[in-house]
Amino acid sequence: MDSINAQSYAKVLENGVQAIEEVKRLGSSGYSKSEIYVISHDEDREGRIVDAAKINEIGLQEEGLFGAIANLFRSRGEALRSKITSLGFSGAEAAFYEKELDSGKVLVIAKKPLF
Question: What are the General stress protein 17M-like domain coordinates in residue numbering (predicted)?
Answer without folding.
Answer: 11-104
